[in-house]
């Protein structure tokens, strides 16, 4: 089934603008995009979560000794960094978690215009942005359903913070997974042979088919390793771009994933070979969410192959938006544009023309309503 919707049209706008005003009250009202940071750089702000719970966050370093790293064999193991966000005891005594760690921010300052050429090379204090999760905040008692998040190729898990924290504010535990080697930058607790403390991406523009295949295979294995290590069963999973590809294929391979959201990830290899999930279909709920600014023949072909099977698969599309509207760039890029640090064309390429006061709630509502149906808060999560 395919359904299209447009943020800001009559079907959506009721209540969304009011919600958007509250959403941005603690961001835009407390400081504009032109606020100055260190040495005259600009401060960026993320939109606040809208759910009833405060959110706590903790970072885990997971090591899979059964696999070597596919991008750097000298490491000898496969390491992951993950952030666990969950409803927490409220209180201002717990500091807000930085969007990027200091080491990651330093690398990202250099990498940003290489990973995304539309981003400015200077003028942004990437280390100054804070999330709305609190470090050290004790989790609320009780077991809660878990959602896994896999970011896009070349992006770190931190660029999905806004959506993850919003989901946690409604009662889910969200586990955001970095995929070191293809992530723009990942900061580890320490150095080890084969890598620095901050590991940067090996990806280059226009990766070839072999690189893409390695990226997706590695990400699926990473997600399954997280399920194993944390002892999880009956979880939801969502991912953006290559992360969306990975969660869709992981849904196909691992029945511990009960439902998944693919945020504009292809369902084939770069050589045109369909992934098994697209060839064979799925018997568990899968949402394919896209934008009109990124849609192309390859995406349509691979998604149509999956939709041709009988099964609980739905397609949705946001109008006047583009690929990175599913990430924190949805709110950050318009701030950069308003500050004169990005062109209008750059903004349109990354997130589209639509107002973030509409697109941010639209994406949040789309993902939250899907998981509310298929991995609901209040249901007792199973343990493997």
UniProtKB/TrEMBL annotation:
GO molecular function list: 1-alkyl-2-acetylglycerophosphocholine esterase activity
Species of provenance: Streptomyces griseicoloratus
SUPFAM superfamilies with a match to the protein in the record: alpha/beta-Hydrolases
Protein name as catalogued: Alpha/beta fold hydrolase
An example Gene Ontology biological process: lipid catabolic process
Keywords, ordered alphabetically: Hydrolase, Lipid degradation, Lipid metabolism, Signal
Sequence ranges assigned to domain AB hydrolase-1 in this UniProt record: 145-265
Coiled-coil blocks: none
């Amino acid at each position: 089934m395919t359904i299209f919707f447009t943020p800001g049209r009559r079907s959506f706008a009721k209540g969304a603008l009011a919600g958007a005003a509250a959403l941005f009250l603690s961001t835009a009202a407390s400081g504009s995009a032109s606020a100055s940071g260190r040495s005259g750089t600009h401060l960026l702000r993320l939109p606040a979560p809208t759910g009833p719970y405060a959110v706590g966050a903790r970072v885990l370093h997971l090591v899979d000794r059964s696999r070597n790293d596919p991008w750097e064999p000298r490491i000898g193991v496969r390491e992951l960094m993950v952030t666990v966000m969950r409803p927490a005891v409220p209180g201002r005594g717990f500091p807000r978690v930085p969007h990027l760690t200091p080491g990651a921010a330093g690398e990202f300052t250099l990498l940003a215009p290489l990973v995304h050429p539309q981003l400015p090379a200077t003028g942004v204090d990437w280390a100054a942005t804070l999330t709305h999760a609190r470090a050290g905040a004790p989790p609320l008692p009780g077991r809660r359903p878990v959602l896994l998040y896999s970011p896009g190729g070349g992006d770190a898990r931190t660029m999905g913070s806004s959506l993850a924290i919003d989901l946690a504010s409604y009662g889910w535990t969200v586990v955001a997974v970095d995929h070191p080697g293809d992530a723009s930058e990942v900061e580890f607790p320490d150095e080890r042979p084969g890598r620095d403390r901050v590991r940067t991406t090996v990806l280059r523009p226009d990766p070839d088919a072999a690189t893409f295949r390695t990226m997706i295979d590695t990400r699926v294995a990473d997600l399954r390793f997280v399920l194993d290590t944390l002892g999880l069963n009956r979880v939801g999973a969502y991912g953006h771009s290559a992360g969306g590809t990975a969660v869709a294929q992981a849904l196909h391979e691992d029945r511990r994933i009960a439902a998944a959201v693919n945020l504009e990830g292809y369902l084939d290899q770069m050589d045109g070979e369909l992934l098994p999930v697209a060839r064979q279909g799925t018997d568990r709920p899968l949402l394919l969410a896209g934008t009109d600014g990124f849609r192309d023949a390859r995406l349509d072909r691979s998604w149509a192959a999956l939709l041709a099977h009988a099964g609980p698969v739905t397609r949705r599309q946001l109008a006047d938006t583009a690929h990175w509207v599913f990430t924190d760039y949805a709110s950050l890029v318009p701030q950069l544009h308003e500050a004169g640090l990005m062109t209008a064309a750059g903004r349109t390429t990354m997130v589209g023309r639509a107002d973030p006061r509409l697109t941010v709630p639209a994406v949040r509502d789309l993902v939250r309503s899907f998981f509310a149906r298929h991995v609901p808060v209040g249901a007792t999560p199973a343990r493997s």
